[in-house]
Amino acid sequence: MSLIVIKVGGDILKDDAVVAVAADVASATARGDRVLMVHGGGPQATALQRALGQEPNVVAGRRITDSAALDVIKMAVAGKLNVDLCSALIAAGARPIGLHGASSLAIEARLRPPRVVSGGGSDPIDFGHVGDVVGLNIDLLERLFAGNYVPVLACLGCDPDGRVLNINADIIANQAAKHLGADHLVLVTNTSGVLREIDDPTSRIERLTVAEARQAIEDETVTGGMIPKLEESIRILGAGVGSVHIVGKLGVGDLLREIDAPGSVGTALLP
Predict the structure, then answer these.
(1) How would you label 36-71 residue by residue, b for 16+ Cβ within 10 Å and e otherwise?
(2) Which domains does the chain have, with CATH numbers?
(3) Is the pTM of this model over 0.70?
């Protein structure tokens, strides 16, 4: 029996891949695995902002979350997308429970202070209602696991004063895996794994140790958005997470196959 944390982004929630993920989650829980899901929804939040006449303010790839933007994220992410993902899991035979930070502090957060970020210039940037994960309500999650439920966390945290904060879904998934001591963290992306050649899916690297991942970053075998994923994966492997899997282009059965045979479908990062 494994504890598995699965993160899906907003792009995946627009794709048929969500059906395959839901089917494998149902199969995993049926065989006794404990599964927690985390999802984002950046593309959908951006589209809703524009439909409401707001222009998203993004600095160095990070959304400035003012009060109006936060309301949109609540509606798009903790609202429609969480419901839609839970309904896909229901259809597959799983038992999802939709949650967010304000669900009994399922994701406890604190406000992120202004900070200098790469690509954002030399001055500290105030990102508004954006938070960092302080902890999770482990008691709540363990009670759900015991009932064979699948917690489905939208990427919103909350502080003890009831302030709701936007948090990157990758950060929540990584912290959830760390705090729960997960056996597997699965990052479902738009690519089939870490690629030696970004436009060649056949160049997928099946397995990487921490040392090999560091070398791949140093010699620029990996570039762009895959670099922060690898860097964060290295950190949480050092914190006790068993393995990290970067996968994409999934069919039914692929996610479980990757968990049971690391590197068979995506890229597995191992200590």
Answers:
(1) bbbbbbbebbbebbeeeeeebeeeeebbbbeeebbb
(2) 3-270 (3.40.1160.10)
(3) yes
